Amino acid sequence: MYENAFNGIERDLRAEEGISNELDYVEQISWVLFLKYLHDLETERQDRAELSGEPYRPIISSGFRWDRWAAPKQDGELDLNAALTGDDLIAFIDDKLFPYLGSFRQTARSARSIEYKIGEVFTELRSKFRSGYILRDVLEIVDGLSFNTQAQRYELSELYETRIRRMGNAGRNGGEYYTPRPLIRAMVRVTAPRIGETIYDGAAGSAGFLCEAYDYLRHDKLTASEYETLQSRTFFGQEKKSLAYIIGIMNMVLHGIEAPNIVHTNSLNENLMDIQERDRHDVILANPPFGGGERKEVQQHFPIKTGETAYLFLQHFMRKLRAGGRAAVVIKNTFLSNTDNASVALRKDLLETCNLHTVLDCPQGTFQGAGVKTVVLFFDKGAPTRDIWYYQLDPGRSLGKTNPLNDDDLVEFVNLQRDRADSPKSWTRSRDALDETTFDLSVKNPNAPEAAPLRDPEEIIDAMLARDAETATILEKIRGML
Predict the structure, then answer these.
(1) What domains lie within the chain, and their CATH numbers?
(2) I need a surface site. Which of 39, 201, 286, 419 has the fewest CB within 10 A?
(3) Whether 243 contacts 198, CB under 8 Å
(4) Which helix (H) or strand (E) holds 219?
(5) Strand 77-78 and strand 199-201: pairing?
(6) Residue 350 burial by CB count (10 A; 0-12/13-18/19+): exposed, middle or buried?
(7) Can you give the pTM of this predicted structure?
């Protein structure tokens, strides 16, 4: 049912002149879904309050509630006389609803509250609908969706993830919004977070890492205390870009986290010297943006100055990790071997302050739309590196949009990583064996079969002439048969 609903929404949005691409699609469906989610959440809270005989104060005042403007009902059916449509609906959205919801950012009691998140979302984005009739159709479809059970939220989250993946594949910044979920799940399994620990992503994007970590920790036998811990004291993220921030909040909401602890800010603005123990986390999972280039004043926050955004993020994560904490961070594979001063200094710092115990070498095509090869660095905080275990991921096929990475591709890696066992795809390298001037960490598999030696040029020419002669003989025989 939900699949058909999403397909129907997509058909409607194709006819909307204000929405032109996959990024617009996900952005606009996000705010509509968010408001329907808030309505279901408020209804559930109000019902619980009535059963316990307690008063309930709604988050959203009556005139702006979903069932007053989006889906007013009469005898269980949409009340066409009360439902806004056309230019009236667009005017209400642009001039009244969004300003009202955006004001929550100033009135919320805390930046971690659901009220504050509502205010941020509706301050950062704008409705791109131009036709109130198309929007009316979308509202009616979304009104038929329910967020009341975990199964319903799971199905909706799967469909939403599919749209995020398509957005990433269609856009020129694919990796900015979508890290392959099989890779994230493998990273989560290796870091193995536990309830009671905090999990952080300072480049949250669509919050895929936090959502997968939540799915990993959530199970049917959670106590009320454990559930509350997961809801409010476990997952923390920061995101610089408005669209990614909004999508990240919606993604976490659909996965079952009522008030996501994602902050709309640039993590790199935080001076490393100001980070205190209370700011640190037990587990860090991230895929920071590559390339970019932060301003000079931002670079001043870091001991190792560099214009490479990913290198600044790596320094940020190393300082944000609590002693004894674990991290898994995606980074370009050139980080392992670049000879510029920043790369060498950062590798040295990582090896000396953290235990870089695992390097996962990902094949070309792991990230759709990204032309760079990547590795995943797994490291612990609190002791220097002694040995590094490498695994060279080889799914045995070329990866692409129609043949993406899947969970089965990473089963061997996760299994071997537990004991860091050697295999044709994995090996161990001693820290003592590294060059002390470059700290080169390049992926060089000693267990790979040796490549056949190159043939002598004269031998190649002789073989080509022999084939030409054979071809000429065959053609002469064919000519004689004509």
Answers:
(1) 2-148 (1.20.1260.30), 158-393+403-423 (3.40.50.150)
(2) 419
(3) no
(4) none
(5) unpaired
(6) buried
(7) 0.85
User: DSSP letters along 329-356, please?
Assistant: EEEEGGGGT--SHHHHHHHHHHHHHEEE
Task: Give the whole-angstrom CA distance, residue 47 versus residue 150.
Answer: 18
Structure tokens at 353: 């302050």
- Angle at which helices 132-143 and 22-51 pack, to 10 degrees? 50
Q: Kindly state the DSSP code that residue 78 receives in the 8-state scheme.
A: E
**Helical (H) or strand (E) element with 108:** none
| Angle at the Cα of 209 from the Cα atoms of 203 and 215, rounded to 5 degrees | 155
Residue type, 330: V
Cβ neighbours for 17, distance < 8 A, ≥ 6 positions apart: 130, 131
Note the pLDDT tens digit of each residue in 176-233.
557 889 999 999 999 999 999 999 999 998 899 999 999 999 988 899 999 999 998 9
Distance CA 166, CA 194 (A): 31
Q: Cβ(315)–Cβ(343) under 8 Å? A: no
Alpha carbon distance 361, 410 (integer Å) = 11
Q: Over the stretch 304-336, which tens digit does the pLDDT of each residue have?
A: 999 899 999 999 999 999 999 999 999 999 999
